[in-house]
Amino acid sequence: MAKIRETEIERDMDGDVVGQREVSVERPRRGGGFGWGLVLGVAIIAVVIVAFAYNQGSFQSAGANADRMTAQAERQLNQTAETAGDAAQNAGDQIEDATDRAVN
Question: Of 53, 44, 6, 48, which is closest to residue 25 (Cα–Cα)?
């Protein structure tokens, strides 16, 4: 490995040079590490899985299932809203009948 030589200079309070020494420091290692290889490997595996799922039609069947579930939820929601509306109408009719009887 290559070494880097640095010169450290010691100064006093006035800024005058008092001492000087050379320090050798090993140059840090450069290059791709394990992390980048791992990220690249995971990305490749993810692309392969998505391509395989698309090729087998998994996305199409998932879309069809989602559409079917959405339609079923919409029917149930409409039925619930209709039932709530009928209940509110019946409650209003009962209140109206009770007030008419109380007045007469």
Answer: 6
